[in-house]
Amino acid sequence: MLDISSRQTAAPTMETGQVVASLDSVTKVFGGTVAVADVSIQLRAGEVLALLGENGAGKSTCVKLLAGVHRPDGGQVSILGKAVTFASPLEAQHAGVAVMHQHPGLFPDLSIAENLFIGQTGLRWKLDHLFMRKEAARLLTLVGLDVDVTAPLGRLRTSEQQLVEIARALSLDARVLIMDEPTAALSQREVERLFTVVDNLRPQGVAMMFVGHRMDEIYRVADRIAVLRDGRHVGTEVAAELSRERAVQMMVGRPLDALYPRNTASPGDVVLDVQGLSCDGSFKDVSFQLRAGEILGFGGLVGSGRTEIARVLFGIDQPTAGTITIDGKVMRFASPKDAMDNGIAYVSEDRIGQSLVMDFPILNNASLTVLDKATRGGLMSREKEIGIAKPFLDRLRLRFKSFDQPVGALSGGNQQKVVLAKWLATNPRILILDEPTQGIDVQTKADVHAMMTDLAGKGMAIILISSELPELLGMADRMIVLREGSVTAEFPHDEATQEKVIGAATDSIVRKVDGEIIAKPVPHQDEKSEIPERAAQGTWRRVLARRELGLFAAIAAVVIPISILNIRMLSGANLSALAMDAGLLMIVAVAQMLVVITRSIDLSVAAIIGLAAYGAASTIHLHPEIGVMGGVALACVIGLAAGFLNGLIVTYGRVPAIVVTLGTMSIFRGINSLWAGGTQVSADQVPQAWLDMTAANIFGVPAVLLIAIATLLVVAYILRNTSIGRELFAIGSNPGGASLIGIPSRARILMAFSAAGLLAGFDGALWASRYATVDARVAYGFELTVIAAVVVGGIAVRGGSGTVLGVAAGALMLLIINNGLTLVRVDPLWLQGVYGLVILAAIGIDALVARRAAGKRKGAH
């Protein structure tokens, strides 16, 4: 059972204004760079402290110091006046600190309910899934999200996942709630839901910190505002007494020029003419024109079809109706390259996932779109790369140390500048900007807006998609508004107002009362998330959608025709041999599964089987007094030691698993060869009891198969019903997110490798008993079969998903293919090729399923 008492209990209500948490003169240094210096801020019960500052000012560092991700190099973190030292985010959670992260630290492959409680249950051998589902439904109701909590989180769109992150923070019953840019992916309706939750937490004495860049939201939610600049605390003011102009000046250290400079260019000829454009499930019958030198704004709620139109214009998705005309010529873009060749550039809203290669240097990222222009003699020229990228980076005033600095080390605002420079390097005629200022500071916003005005003045046609209404009102020469995939209104700059735009976007009755926009919403389709294949659609449909059912159908499709060709396929002797081989493969395949779900791989698994098999057989030959159990125990110890060594090097040596296990595979094979010395252990050299261990039948079923089934049931229980098992899936699904919530990833991965080695060693003992004659070449080349069984069984090579039943079905399918080909007298040399084709087919199916799921998520918008 999930012991509710083991979770953080509700904190006692604090007296409003009492200091609950604080940073006291903290300093944090990273590799000689001072991130924050002598910063002191206080979070008080029943209040919201807004933390303002440019990107790189130190806001995220302060958040991570309070959350236990970092420890201060000077000063201290205090909770209720007592200095604390958090060794991990988990310790901070136990102290009552909850964090809503800018990029949700969630796990797309786990259920929505599991996402709320993963990492909070401690070490539990029986999770109460029923309680978690009921509590998850209650918490999601608080944030206004109505979904099937048993569905995988990955089926939700980004804004809905952010609401799940909010619900997760609420599940901690925290006394301190830190919101790190939680509204970046939310619609206005969802932002209001969040602020309603915040208002409800004030009377409970929760101390809150809100980190954001949208000034409207800051002044809507904050009681006090603290400002950071260049890693130092500039000051803290009461929000009602701090003007926006003064707040901006505190952030940048000087008065800021107009945030929304007007485009004074006169629109030229029509560059882009869109008529009746539709894309099934996304938008329909969209028509508009775009002129040279014009900034056209796309307004509407998140999911209204704005981004989907941009994707079609850039050739990512294909339209189902309508025309796209450029300079009077009807175009059809089969790919983004076609769009680029016709002068279109698209800055995606997802700079991390779709616009940047985070491990690449700044220079490589800035020249990705113009690689053909950055070569000399067919080879990349650094001089040419710099010549292309530098002017645009300079124009955007990028802050960086060198062109070789990884782009992932930059602040969000500077990352966005690299993205813009990358696309400006293509010299486009049409520039599509999708949320170009999302998550960046006011100075960077001003730079981006100035760039837009400058480009429009030089004749570039620009489409601006933004969820910040003031930005659209300030920058757009003309605006079209979308709702549920259709254009509902069009406004020139001088006629566009907040009331008109919100009314067109929401079909609401909108008016302004005392300076505030008041809307009476009408229920819409996006009020309730539609998750594909929800439980309400019936248990049978969910069962039929399982991948394992498809595998068993494929097995039947192989067995039936081969049985017709050769009836020996169904003979007792053949089925018995097949069952014994299946038992051996299933055990080692599930061992490989433990590693793969954590985004690793173990190429040495077959070598461990061989080493354990020969070690157990030779030892029981020389020392029969140890008995069968002694031989099995020895094999398990050998496997455990080998797996532990692999895991130790991977986790604490930080060497990629494929490199480590490729090396240890040769090492283990070499040790085995030296141990065997060219000799073998035969059936007449070991006790009969050793051979009977797998040769025996129980009710007509080979003992080895029953042992395998028991092993698989134990592993399945651990993976499904224990906190450790779910944490393994979480690590594979989102390694960064696992670290943020305090899951000990290295310890868990080490445990996975060790358990995999233990199972491989156990399998080696069964192998030695099953095949009797053992030498140094036992299981030689078997690793390909094991990996094939895992992949075919539906274990995602990217980690995070899969089932033991799927692995069992994948192993059985491969053995049946092998057995069937042998019975119909196909050359055994073809077998490896067949395995390769099966692996490719399985990966192809997974890719197709992933694309379909992505399409359904897009359709749900």
From TrEMBL:
Membrane topology classification: Multi-pass membrane protein
Localisation: Cell membrane
Superkingdom field: Bacteria
Any one Gene Ontology cellular component term annotated for this protein: plasma membrane
Transmembrane domains' residue ranges: 549-569, 575-596, 603-622, 628-650, 657-678, 698-719, 749-772, 778-797, 804-823, 829-849
Range of residues in the leader sequence: none
Gene3D superfamilies: P-loop containing nucleotide triphosphate hydrolases (3.40.50.300)
Protein name, as recorded: ATP-binding cassette domain-containing protein
Species of provenance: Rhizobium leguminosarum
Taxonomy of the source species: Bacteria, Pseudomonadati, Pseudomonadota, Alphaproteobacteria, Hyphomicrobiales
